[in-house]
UniProtKB/TrEMBL annotation:
Alphabetical UniProt keywords: Hydrolase, Protease, Serine protease
Gene Ontology terms for molecular function: serine-type endopeptidase activity
The family this protein is said to belong to: Belongs to the peptidase S8 family.
All residue ranges annotated as the Peptidase S8/S53 domain in the record: 236-505
Active site positions, chain numbering: 245 (charge relay system), 281 (charge relay system), 468 (charge relay system)
Protein name: Peptidase S8/S53 domain-containing protein
A single GO BP: proteolysis
Domain of life, per lineage: Bacteria
């Protein structure tokens, strides 16, 4: 009888989970639910082992102190809330207990996140069908300002051929935005789902109203700084630079194309730039890209797209519509090779913007659209919050990929052909990377971005500071490369590689690391 009891005990022990003591250590990948969550929102992780009292959960290397665990079959569920002192964007998750370890990633929904969601609807899906899907999931479509259930994005192909819908919760206990996105994704499998939020133009980013120049800097003449050859035969002719921004004033020195205004649907005027009581933002960017006297590509056209208001706030829906307006323009005007400039951003990634840019950059071959983006101006305040500082869409060009999707096929791989631009200032006779200019593996190059001379909407000269004003210089350079390669057209990725290999100078810039300077300073000495 004694041996029977001993044998029963041994069998029972063999059936136990030895992962925490004596068994093989557990190593696993975990996927949070929801995969995107805003500050204060509850997040759950399922672990393949039974959690005990020594469990440690960290987000971006910072220990989360308030964690609860629940038994779940042979494993456990770990539950925590996203702290409010973290930067938005993908942040690394790690759970450890003894020798057991689980890793993953959570996309924190940071500044400017709203309470509703956006959805890109395929052309063949009717509004009635979509409305029924929403109702069955306890959701509803939010009518547009004109009473439409969804708004056409205007493109002929790709995601811009679809429609944009806004979705809110219809019934039940209030959902946090991450949970709302999860419910919407489940109800609309195969459609693109995103939060409705606010991005900011640079220098207005939601953290500072204007980027101040560094002490000791001198004013910069952009053309001289980047060594633009005034006798060059290439001026950007045959190209158009789309400026998605606060609007572009009708200056005689700019060659303006018919634009669009997505901020004021009652009386649209893309040629009105009211930012900062007339100081302007989109106008200054357009001038640096293609003005007859100040611009890098003086013969390039400017496509003014107003997606940001006079306070520098850019509703995500307006940015999406602005990008698609540029895509549709390129489809309809193939003889005008387009470059897209985005001097705006947020710490929270938009999956819709990612998909739109991926289509423009990587799925249209030589008819693709090179995209130039500002790197952002938060580096000097990066320690004001925890976690990794991101700036989207610039960070879409990084080396790591950004998705925390449970479906590997939807992984957000780095975008090729996207040029992320940091800023430099002039200190005496030397250029140095600006202290505010964001660093990261997504930085491709730098260009003048402190006290750069440009024009206000009233056609008077002023000095402008921020990566916003470095980006359009590179957009102008891209226009030059597009014109020069008209007989041997380049894909956006090939244009990016050509520009970085031939139009940058890596020497100088002090001891700036590659994460700050990328391939170096925009230098057109060897340019066409």
């Amino acid at each position: 009888m004694r041996w029977i009891v001993v044998w029963a005990v041994l069998v029972a022990l063999a059936a136990c989970d030895f992962s925490r003591s004596g068994g093989e250590p557990v190593s696993a990948t975990v996927y949070p639910t929801p995969r995107r969550a805003t500050w204060g929102e509850e997040v759950r992780l399922n672990l393949p082992w039974r959690a005990g009292s020594s469990l440690r959960l960290s987000l971006a290397g910072e220990t989360i102190s308030e964690v609860r665990t629940e038994a779940l079959g042979t494993g456990s569920a770990v539950v925590f809330r996203v702290p409010s002192d973290f930067w938005g964007g993908p942040q690394a998750l790690e759970v450890t207990e003894g020798e057991n370890r689980a890793t993953g990633s959570l996309t924190v929904l940071g500044e400017g996140v709203g309470t509703e969601a956006l959805l890109v609807v395929r052309p063949e899906v009717s509004d009635d069908s979509l409305s029924q899907k929403m109702a069955s999931a306890g959701l509803r479509l939010v009518p547009s300002a004109k009473g439409e259930s969804s708004v056409p994005l205007g493109g002929a192909s790709g995601p811009c051929a679809g429609r944009l819908a806004q979705v809110a919760q219809a019934s039940g206990a209030p959902l946090a935005i991450g949970a709302l996105l999860e419910r919407l994704e489940a109800a609309t499998a195969g459609l693109v789902v995103d939060l409705d939020g606010i991005v900011g133009i640079d220098p207005l980013t939601g953290y500072d109203t204007d980027q101040s120049p560094s002490p000791g800097t001198s004013p910069i003449d952009a053309r001289q700084a980047i060594r633009r050859n005034p006798s060059s035969n290439f001026t950007g002719a045959g190209t158009t630079i789309a400026i998605v921004d606060t609007g572009v004033a009708s200056l005689a020195s700019l060659n303006l194309r018919p634009g669009a205004d997505f901020t004021n649907l009652e009386t649209p005027n893309p040629n009105q730039d009211e930012y900062q009581d007339g100081l302007g933002h989109g106008t200054a960017a357009a001038v640096l890209a293609a003005d007859a006297a100040y611009g890098v590509a003086p013969a390039a056209g400017i496509l003014p797209i107003k997606s940001c208001d006079k306070n520098g706030k850019c509703a995500l829906a307006a940015v999406i519509r602005g990008v698609c307006y540029a895509v549709a323009y390129a489809e309809q005007n193939k003889n005008q090779k387009l470059i897209l400039n985005l001097s705006l951003g947020s710490d929270t990634p938009s999956e819709i913007v990612y998909i739109l840019l991926k289509d423009a950059l990587m799925k249209r071959g030589v008819n693709g659209i090179p995209v130039v983006v500002a790197a952002g101006n938060q580096w000097a305040i990066r320690t004001s919050k925890k976690g990794t500082l991101h700036h989207f869409p610039a960070s879409f060009g990084g080396n790591r990929g950004l998705s925390v999707s449970r479906d590997p096929a939807r992984r957000m791989t780095p975008l090729k052909g996207l040029l992320s631009v940091g800023a430099v200032g002039l200190f005496g006779s030397d250029y140095r990377v600006s202290s505010f200019s964001n660093n990261g593996d997504f930085i491709d190059l730098v260009a003048p971005g402190e006290r750069v001379r440009s024009l206000r909407p009233n056609n008077t000269q002023a000095e402008f500071t921020g990566t916003s004003f470095a980006a359009p210089l590179v957009a102008g350079a891209a226009a030059i490369v597009r014109q020069a390669s008209v007989f041997t057209p380049l894909t956006p990725e090939a244009l990016e590689l050509t520009l970085l290999a031939n139009l940058t100078e890596s020497s100088g810039l002090g001891d700036a690391p590659v994460e700050a300077r990328g391939q170096g300073l925009l230098d057109m000495t060897r340019g066409p």
